Structure formats: C-alpha cells, structure tokens
Amino acid sequence: MHLEIAPGVSEDRIAAAARRFEDEVGRSATSDVWFRNAFGHDVARFQHFLADAGFGVGTVDGDAGRRTHGAVEGFQDANGLTVDGRVGPQTRRAAGLDGPDIAGGPTLPDQGPSDAELLGLEEPLPQTDETDEIDPE
C-alpha cells in the first residue's frame, strides 16, 4: 500500500484516515489480520474451516460479510480467544491454519471492474510534481 500525505496534515487525521481505509477493505495495514469486508482466498480458506467445524458462514465465497464475522466470533468464543471477529495469528493458530497458505482454493466470484477501470484510469496518473512545467503562452 502506498499513502501520500499532504503537508501539514496531523498524525491524528492520518491515523483516522488509515482506520477508515482498513475498515473499508477489511484488512490491517500493519499486520496479517483480516476482518469484516475482507475478500480473498485466505478468507475462503477460513470460511471453509468454519463451515466444516459447524459455524454457519453462509456461502464459502471469500467475502467476509456479516455471517462470516459472526462465525469467527463464535469460533473465538468457543476457543477462549478474544472475541473481536478479527482473524489474525492467534485465531488461525487455534484453527490449526497458521502454516503457509495453500495454493489454489475455491474459485472466487469476480468482483467486477475497479473504480479506476470504470473511469478509464487503468494507467497511473502523473503526479503534478512529475510533469513538465506548462508554458502559459
């Protein structure tokens, strides 16, 4: 992840923006933890484990929605862990899934085009400090 910070922005505002971003994507920016709103094979792998263990995740689709979040909390409670709905090293260890990720896994649904693709912005936009000066004449 790359974050550019505008001059003069306080550390508190930066930390608040980072927390909002983490909540939106369901992943920690500083550690190997995922939670509600995360999407990926690691989520699907844990959903599969939870479903096999009797915790109702709904569809194993790699999308950590409301039901997956509740199933994670149920698993954490049943195993004496801190109940926070976040899947990090302790929760994975309790599930026996703390080894290296297994290649492959379920086929995940297509998330559709990104906002950049929809706006025709597939290529990075030049930054203002990376462009030649514009001649006003």
Short description:
Pfam families: PG_binding_1. The protein is an all-alpha fold. The protein has a domain at 31-121: Orthogonal Bundle (Muramoyl-pentapeptide Carboxypeptidase, domain 1).
Helix content: 25-40%
- Quickly count the helices: 5
SS content category? mainly alpha
CATH superfamily of the domain at 31-121: PGBD-like superfamily/PGBD
Described by strand count, sense and barrel closure, the largest sheet is: none
**In CATH, what is the class of the domain at 31-121?**
Mainly Alpha
Radius of gyration: 20 Å
- The portion of residues forming beta strands comes to under 5%
Low-confidence stretches: none
Pfam family, one: PG_binding_1
Protein name: Peptidoglycan binding-like domain-containing protein
Region (Disordered): 71-137
Domain Peptidoglycan binding-like: 41-94
Blueprint (SSEs and pairs):
Layout: H1 11-25, H2 41-52, H3 66-78, H4 89-95, H5 115-118
Describe this entry's structure for a reader.
This is Peptidoglycan binding-like domain-containing protein. Residues 41-94 form the Peptidoglycan binding-like domain. InterPro entries: Peptidoglycan-bd-like, PGBD-like_sf, PGBDSf. Residues 71-137 are annotated as: Disordered. The chain is an all-alpha fold and 137 residues long. The protein has a domain at 31-121: Orthogonal Bundle (Muramoyl-pentapeptide Carboxypeptidase, domain 1), CATH 1.10.101. Helices cover 37% and strands 0% of the residues. The protein is globular and about 50 Å long.
